[in-house]
Amino acid sequence: MSNTPTGNPVFRLIMNVFSGLYRATDGRIGGRMANLNVLLLTTTGRKSGKQRTNPLGYFEHDGGYVVTASNGGADRHPGWFFNLEADPNVRVRIHDKEFPARADVIGAELRKKLWIRLVSLSPQYGNYATSTKREIPLILLRPVKE
């Protein structure tokens, strides 16, 4: 078993239940966590080719949605981050709306500004940053037309 949260089978089960409740209630259950609104991000597994869905806190920026690859402050990026690096074409669900999007890792200069905003909205991310040796990526999900 991996020492990262997303590698833990119990954690994965909890996230699947969370995602199911979110879908079934259009986000009325599970629509907020850690002072952030929640979306469901679906990526394609880089090895398996299977669709993987993860609930993530987000905030809006410049017509898109910023999510964080914090992995609970672990020293390894979450699996979904590696999936979107391999294929940045993702699906996003916010409440009852689902749409395709492109995922791009936010560059260093903008990341500094958006990190400050993230920590002001949800201070626990500041703790995650101090518990890991890696720089936690921020990702901008931009809706694309189908």
Your description of this structure?
Strands 2-3-4-7-6-5 form a 6-stranded antiparallel beta barrel. Helix content is 31%, strand content 33%. It has helices spanning 9-24, 79-86, 108-121, 124-130, and strands at 32-33, 36-44, 51-61, 64-68, 89-94, 97-105, 138-143. By secondary structure, it is of the alpha+beta class. The model has no long low-confidence stretch (mean pLDDT 91). The termini are far apart. It has one domain (5-143): Pnp Oxidase, Chain A (Roll). It is built from 4 helices and 7 strands; from the N terminus they run αββββαββααβ. The longest helix has 16 residues, at 9-24.
Q: Which helices and strands appear, and what pairs or packs with what?
A:
Elements: H1 9-24, E1 32-33, E2 36-44, E3 51-61, E4 64-68, H2 79-86, E5 89-94, E6 97-105, H3 108-121, H4 124-130, E7 138-143
Antiparallel strand pairs: 1-2, 2-3, 2-5, 3-4, 4-7, 5-6, 6-7
